[in-house]
Amino acid sequence: MTIEELNTKYKIAGQLEFIAGNGGLPMIRVNNAKAAALISLHAGQVLSYQPAGEPEDVLFLSEKAYYQDGKAIKGGAPICWPWFGADPEGKGRPGHGFVRNRAWNVVATEAMNNGDVKVTLGLVDTPDTRAIWPQSFSLLQEIVIGATLNLSLITRNTGKETFSITQAFHTYFKVGDIARTKVLGLEGCEYIDKAGGGNEQKRQSDAVTIESEVDRIYLDVGNTLTIDDSALNRRIQITSQGSKTAVVWNPWEKISKEMADLEDTDYQRLVCVETTNAANDVVEVAPGSECRLIASYRVIRN
Q1: Which residues of this protein are catalytic (predicted)?
Q2: Active-site residue, selected from the candidate residues 5, 274, 284, 290
Q3: How far apart are the first and last CA of the chain?
Q4: How far apart are CA 76 and CA 104, in angstroms?
Q5: Alpha-carbon gap, residue 18 to 284, rounded angstroms
Q6: Which of 44, 105, 204, 225 could cross-link with 238 by S-S, CB 3.0 to 4.6 Å?
Q7: Residue of 54, 170, 213, 258 marked active site
Q8: Model-level pTM?
Q9: What pLDDT, in 10s, does the model give residues 227-283?
Q10: Per CATH, is 3-301 categorized as 3.30.565.10?
Q11: How far is residue 239's CA from residue 222's CA, in Å, rounded to a whole number?
Q12: Catalytic-residue membership of 96
């Protein structure tokens, strides 16, 4: 559908409109009494979320991000699905699956009674997706923008055989200074240390601080994590459902310089704290059934 057609069918006067974003990609701009947000239909990805009265965006978005078909957008809340990380079958398929670099469909928009705005995006299997992953599915993402940003990823098995998935909200959070940032709530958890291509299992003794490349899959985590961002005088609380693992990632200096879609110093201004089904947290979805991965983000002032 064109931007005009999308606005005709789904616009919410004074709260939600469709615009041509960077690279000409269709995007949804939300601006209500509670928050402002930007959502890209390419990748089905929330790119920006800023609660009313907050001086800074909750999400990090690279100034050098790609905005084109077949490319992932660096920042915001990308969706990894139906696998997290490298191709689990070693067939050379894209890392983190195939839904973060293709167009999603608008299913519905809604002005809710409590003043929030709800956007529902979707994907279904096609001959193209079945050539990559031979399963029949319906994938929905419900995005609720209010004083809290709520994301729900709903996987439905529309085929005749059970399939397995791993998945993630690979969310990039904006921080004032990575040297003054801590991630709370993972104390005592075992984690798989993937930094530098490793695979060693370790235990987190106290709050997570970042002083070098960090790429960790935390196991058997609780449902509440907190980013303590003292430089911006705020905490970002992350609550989740349907997840037993979490990933903390920061590329640090060397990888930031190697990534064409990051500025050399971006590692100082971001941390990914990801709500995941990763490693041994594999989800089996039987025919006719569904699973939900849910993450909510809210700002708490220090």
Answers
A1: 170, 274
A2: 274
A3: 44
A4: 16
A5: 36
A6: 225
A7: 170
A8: 0.97
A9: 999 999 999 999 999 999 999 999 999 999 999 999 999 999 999 999 999 999 999
A10: no
A11: 9
A12: no
